[in-house]
UniProtKB/TrEMBL annotation:
Keywords: Membrane, Transmembrane, Transmembrane helix. The keyword Electron transport does not apply. It comes from Rivibacter subsaxonicus. InterPro entries: Na_symporter_ssu. Residues 7-81 form the Sodium symporter small subunit domain. This is Putative solute:sodium symporter small subunit. The keyword Iron-sulfur does not apply. It holds the Pfam family DUF4212. The chain crosses the membrane at residues 17-36, 48-69.
């Protein structure tokens, strides 16, 4: 199956944004929580490391999902493959 230039461009942009968002996910999930132990100060009555692991990561995950959905909707419209409402 041969892909057109438009399809190839669409797929490259999709892979690029996916890789960037996965890198952000990795940093938040593993790097930030690994180094959170060294952040030993109180934040709203809780240790900051607990807040990062329990609350901050969830906020970032929701933002990643929101951004990806918004970006892909725009990309779909740009390439003429958007779903009609």
């Amino acid at each position: 199956m041969q892909l057109t230039e438009t399809q190839r461009h669409y797929w490259q942009r999709n892979l690029r944004i996916t890789a960037i968002l996965l890198a952000i996910w990795f940093v938040v999930t593993f790097v930030a929580t690994f180094f959170a132990r060294e952040l030993s100060f109180t934040f709203f009555g809780w240790p900051f490391s607990f807040w990062v692991a329990a609350q901050g990561a969830l906020v970032v995950y929701v933002l990643i999902i929101w951004f990806y959905a918004r970006y892909m909707n725009r990309l779909d419209q740009e390439h003429g493959v958007a779903e009609d409402e």
